[in-house]
Amino acid sequence: MPDPVSPFTSTILPIGVTRLAAHPNVVMAVLVGRTGPIIVEYDGARVTGDVLLVRPGVVHSVTLAEHGADVVYLNGLTFPFEAPLAVALKGILEQLARRSVGGDRGAIEELRARLAFATSPLPVKIADIVRATQADPMRRMTQDELARYLDMERTRALRCFKAATGLTFRRFKLWSGLQHAALQMAGHALVRTAAIDAGFADTAHLSRAFGSMFGLSPSTAIAGLDDRGSE
C-alpha cells in the first residue's frame, strides 16, 4: 500500500559563494540566483538561467553571480524532464521557486506537487523509515533493522528501499545527516557541533561528505553566509 502523503522534507540552504566545484546532487535541486543568472556545466554542456532545476546524480559545476544563490532540495522527487542536466524554470514554476527559497511553505508544497508527476508514492513502511530518519539523524537504523522492519531478506530490503526512494539506504542516511548539519551551520553553529549533532564521526568526516555533495567546504559555506544580507 502506498503512503498518500510524501514523508520527504524540502531543505532550503543559502549558498553565499560564486562557484561550486564539480559535484553530483543527491536529490533534485532548485537554484535561485540572488543578483544574476546561474550557469550549470557538465562535460561541455551548459544551462543558464535565473532559476534552474538540476537533475540529481550528474556531476556538474556551478557558477553564480555576486552574492550567490539559495537552493531548495526537493527530496524524494524524480526529475520529471528529459533534459540531461538542468532546465530553466519560467512562469508559475519560477514564481513558486522564488517564494520557496524565501521559506513560503505553501509555495514549497505547490512546487513539489507540480513537479511530482513522475514520482510514485512510497510504500507505507518505507515512508515511516524516511520520516524517522529525517526527524532524528542520530538514529542510524542498520541494514538488519531495515530488513526486519520490512519483513524481507536483507538484500531484497535494500533493493526495495532504493527502488522506492532513488537512493541507497546508506546514502539516504548520509544525506539526511548532512542536511541536518548544513542547516545547523546556516544557523551559525560551529562545524564540530554540527558534525556531532548530525551523527558524523568527527569534523573531518563531515567535511569530506559536505564537499562531495555540495561542491564546497563547510568553512567556505559558513564564510559566505554573510552575503545573505548584502543583496
Question: In what order do the strands lie side by side in the largest sheet?
Answer: 1-8-3-6-9
Which residues sit in consecutive blocks of at least 5 with pLDDT less than 50?
Answer: none
Estimated structural class: alpha+beta
SSE run: EEEEEEEEEHHHHHHHHH
Give the proportion of residues in helices. Answer: 40-55%
Number of strands: 9
Number of helices: 9
The geometry reads as: globular
Summed over residues and divided by their number, the pLDDT gives a mean of: 91
Q: Terminal Cα separation, in Å?
A: 47 Å
Sheet of most strands: 5 strands, antiparallel
Share of β-strand residues: 15-25%
Measured on Cα atoms, how large is the radius of gyration? 17 Å
Characterise this structure.
The structure is a single chain. The chain has 231 residues and is α+β, with helices and mostly antiparallel strands. It contains nine helices and nine strands. The chain has helices at 91-101, 105-115, 124-135, 143-150, 154-165, 169-186, 191-197, 203-214, 218-223; strands spanning 10-15, 19-24, 28-33, 38-42, 45-49, 51-54, 59-63, 69-74, 86-88. The strands form two sheets. A five-stranded antiparallel beta sheet has the order 1-8-3-6-9. A four-stranded antiparallel beta sheet has the order 2-7-4-5. Strand 4 and strand 5 form a beta hairpin. Helix 1 packs across helix 2 (105-115), helix 4 (143-150) packs across helix 5 and helix 6 packs antiparallel against helix 7. The protein is globular.
Characterize this entry briefly.
The protein is an alpha+beta fold and 231 residues long. It has helices at 91-101, 105-115, 124-135, 143-150, 154-165, 169-186, 191-197, 203-214, 218-223; strands at residues 10-15, 19-24, 28-33, 38-42, 45-49, 51-54, 59-63, 69-74, 86-88.
